[in-house]
Amino acid sequence: MKKVGLIINPIAGMGGRVGLKGTDGQTILTEAKRLGAKQVSPQRTIKALERLIPLKNSIELVTYPREMGEQVAKQCGFNSRIIGSITKGKTTSDDTKQACKNFLDLNIDILLFAGGAGTARDI
């Protein structure tokens, strides 16, 4: 059985949609929301996971809690393995970095992530 790690940065892509550069930092995120930005990475992850549904009995989906993967995995019908914890109540780049360390310890076969340039850098 192959292990697939899943990380979602739930705020990725919000700033660009409203003409801001990324969503790095609480100030930019607050402004993006004020301008009407909505989350896009969870929906993008759903599209990706829908492609894996036919394989769900032959892969182990490993993810982080709540909005970092657990919620979307459940929504797509995956019985995923939840590891780690979100440290400050809201996800941060530290959570992404810790998730990657945990995935390395678990020797995952492939990583699926939904995020922007900052998330890719953290990974």
Comma- or semicolon-separated keywords:
123 residues; alpha/beta; 41% helix; 4-stranded parallel sheet; globular
Task: Briefly characterize the structure.
The chain has 123 residues and is α/β, with parallel strands linked by helices.
Q: What is the string of SSEs from the N terminus onward?
A: EHHHEHEHEH
Count of the domains:
1
Main beta-sheet annotation: 4 strands, parallel
How many H/I helical runs?
A: 6
Radius of gyration: 14 Å
Unreliably modeled segments: none
Structural class: alpha/beta
Strand content: 15-25%
What is the average per-residue confidence, as pLDDT, rounded to a whole number? 91
**Strand line-up of the largest beta sheet:** 3-2-1-4
Description:
This protein is an alpha/beta fold. The chain has one domain. Helix 4 links the parallel strand 2 and strand 3. It starts with a strand and ends with a helix.
